[in-house]
């Protein structure tokens, strides 16, 4: 079995658990995205919520990406990392007044607005500040992304976006509201989508919406199709990157853009997930009655995805090349859900070995908590 290539000589004296980021893989991923998206002149915004580590933000900003933010804190982090204000989009169902003010004062590119009431509030606050807010309406296209129910967002039952039946009515509001201007439509159907058919469905739905709007004389400058492209969690060594070539080509092949219309993307996971690993030290091997446990010093407080979504992460013992044995890999937190993997095959493991929990660069470090009064994990870049 191929194992990851880790700079273990640097790991010896680092305080575990910690996040290790493979800078080269991140840069290669960004280069690939730029190459594939620029074939069609598409604009990619990085979804900061996937990982807001300052160094990660700087690397991504440096490669010329825009930013997709879901809070005032993220807008500030994006600006601090050097992202252009006019390449920042701001989404979220529950934008607080101060967040709207922050976005208006920073003259961001676009608000992705999720309801008529929100539109009225933005209009009011913009009026107070003597600004005009550029707005894309987030449309709920009622598309099933066939992904985990916690991370599907594009169905009528979800809290996100404006339902299709209400779209035209919401567009009419703009003629009454003087401090908002409609520039685009926004969509985001879910996350960890590895089958391209939901994206094809989305394109077809957008085509329908666009032709209906055209019938009533409305054409918008931009379409934003959100993010959601998944990665392969099973085989990080064989498939270290999402298939960006196919992904962008789907939109090129299926989506009918109007002349001069630009297409925007908001990728999070597919940019940062593969480059991060959570490195943890084995504290004890405990022989249970039916199970053998590898108890490690990382827990759900450092990486919550397995506990929250039963998410799979590939795990390797990077200190051992002995024969494989079966373990339950568990953390120290007082919750039974604090389990990284069950009946998992690792090279024979002993106290002091380092394990790498792979593909943890997205929704990992950023979701860490101090539960049990633990310290937040640090991060290292090699
Ligand atoms: C979370 C989110 C994204 C990024 O999703 P990924 O699955 O990480 O690519 C993009 N846009 C919006 C509006 C989001 O909420």
Give an overview of the whole structure.
It is a single chain. This protein is an alpha/beta fold and 382 residues long. The chain folds into 2 domains: 8-17 and 274-381, Lyase, Ornithine Decarboxylase, Chain A, domain 1 (Beta Barrel); 23-272, Alanine racemase (TIM Barrel), CATH 3.20.20. The chain has 10 helices and 17 strands. Strand 8, helix 7 (197-215) and strand 9 (222-224) form a beta-alpha-beta unit. Helix 1 runs parallel beside helix 8. The chain is elongated and about 70 Å long. The model has no long low-confidence stretch (mean pLDDT 95). It binds pyridoxal-5'-phosphate. Residues 47, 49-50, 68, 70, 91, 188, 191, 226-229, 266-270, 362 line the site of pyridoxal-5'-phosphate.
Task: Give the tags.
Lyase, Ornithine Decarboxylase, Chain A, domain 1; binds pyridoxal-5'-phosphate; TIM Barrel; eight-stranded parallel barrel; single chain
Question: SSE string, helix = H, strand = E?
Answer: EHEHEHEHEHEEHEHEHEHEEHEEEEE
Poorly predicted runs of 5 or more residues: none
How far apart lie the N and C ends? 24 Å
CATH superfamily of the largest domain: Alanine racemase
Radius of gyration: 22 Å
Look up the CATH topology of the largest domain.
Answer: TIM Barrel
Return the CATH architecture of the largest domain. Answer: Alpha-Beta Barrel
Count of helical regions: 10
CATH class of the largest domain: Alpha Beta
Shape: elongated
Mean pLDDT: 95
Strand content: 15-25%
Biggest pleated-sheet summary: 8 strands, mixed
* Count of distinct structural domains: 2
Helical content (DSSP H or I, runs of 4+): 25-40%
Number of strands: 17
Bound molecules: pyridoxal-5'-phosphate
**Which class of secondary structure composition applies to the elements?**
alpha/beta
